[in-house]
Specification:
Blueprint lengths: L1 H22 L3 H12 L2 H32 L3 H25 L16 H13 L4 H12 L6 H25 L3 H31 L3
Helix pairs in contact: 1-6, 1-7, 1-8, 2-3, 2-7, 3-5, 3-6, 3-7, 4-6, 4-8
């Protein structure tokens, strides 16, 4: 129980960073939105599952890679935290800039024509795995949750928890954005959401950069 209490704050912070990252639409989320709006709910859900599986793959690769790196070079934790903290501050800047902008989100149908459900699932996976920002994003998320000397189960809990959240939230995007009402509501709330996200990312980035463990 003491171990759980020790590592739980970091795990919850990693979950929070992941949740807010999904709330700030990137190429993956915008693709799910656009597909649901232009093609249909089923296709959007298939694409969402592909994105979620891709997110799980990145999480596993990041945890295994960082664990192996830290096992060999303990001092690498400082470099990882600097990279993660700097990326979170960059996300904060982007969120604040988006909050100040007047334009709405631009969710469009995927290029290349209509696909089968399996085709959309595969496309979602490819979108997530080829996103150049995904690696940095996961380094930041895992760095928030992993402390120096953290046991293997901490990384496993972060990976499994974020995968479950990813499936739920991406499917929710697919279902919600198949309706015009939700699209309008999100458009009206977008600037406030981005301001909240910017604040969290800034605080999380500073926390990571000033952390000693």
């Amino acid at each position: 129980m003491q171990d759980v209490a020790l590592y739980l704050p970091g795990i919850l912070t990693a979950y929070a960073a992941f949740l807010l990252g999904i709330a700030s639409p990137g190429p993956n989320v915008l693709s799910v939105m656009g597909t649901s709006m232009s093609v249909g709910r089923g296709s959007g859900m298939a694409l969402a599952m592909g994105v979620a599986i891709g997110s799980f793959t990145w999480a596993v690769l990041t945890v295994l890679g960082l664990s192996a790196l830290l096992a060999t070079y303990a001092s690498a934790l400082l470099v990882i935290k600097v990279l993660g903290g700097a990326y979170l501050l960059w996300l904060a800047y982007k969120a604040f800039r988006s909050a100040a902008a007047r334009h709405d989100i631009e969710a469009k149908e995927l290029a290349g024509g209509r696909r089968t459900k399996l085709g959309y699932l595969r496309r979602g996976y490819i979108i997530q795995m080829t996103n150049p920002k995904a690696a940095l994003s996961w380094i930041a998320i895992i760095s928030l949750g992993l402390q120096d000397g953290a046991p293997f189960w901490v990384g496993a809990v972060i990976v499994l928890g974020t995968f479950i959240l990813s499936v739920i939230l991406h499917l929710m995007y697919a279902v919600a954005f198949s309706t015009d009402v939700m699209v309008r509501l999100y458009g009206k709330a977008r600037r406030g959401i981005q301001a909240v996200l910017g604040t969290f990312f800034a605080l999380a980035g500073l926390r990571l950069l000033t952390s000693r463990s």
